[in-house]
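Our platform keeps sequence and structure together, in a single record for each protein. Nothing more is needed to write down the fold, since each code stands for a local backbone conformation. An entry from our holdings is shown next, in its original layout:
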Amino acid sequence: MSGTVTAVSSNGEYSFTKPNRDSITLLAGLGVQGDVHAGVTVKHRSRVAQDPTQPNLRQVHLVQEELFDEVGAAGFAVAPGDLGENITTRGIDLLALPAGTLLRIGAAVLEVTGLRNPCLQIDNFRQGLLKQVVGRDEAGNIVRKAGVMSIVKEGGVVRPGDVVEAELPSGPHRPLERV
């Protein structure tokens, strides 16, 4: 499986959206250099309030650009960085990857840890968008579409146009759960 990076984004301040950049630098074990969510322990405010010593399994947030096409068809204008993601991709089904998948992007390597669990801030950004990115399947199971979270295994610079190569883990695959 492979795809392409279409945008990279980071923000040194807490904000729902992240401005696009020419490149971002991923730091092993930390996340995106200069990004407010980089660190060994959790940085998301709700997670810090629960237990600030938890490991940061949400160092880098990736969203597939195809989601923007889907919500756009429902009348929601969303662009790269708008959902707070660091890396926007096209051509790779991030949501279908099993936990532990390695994503090779340029010289960097990410390990997919789970699904983003979107919160009400999405409706503050675009009213009604939360229902577009979280729903239920035919069996009543919750379906989260707001991207995947990862940790940085090997650092490096990531730019739009870089190829994203997925390396699936060996053994039985575990489906992604929210992190």
Observations:
- The helical segments are 45-50, 66-73, 121-125, 130-133.
- The mean pLDDT is 95.
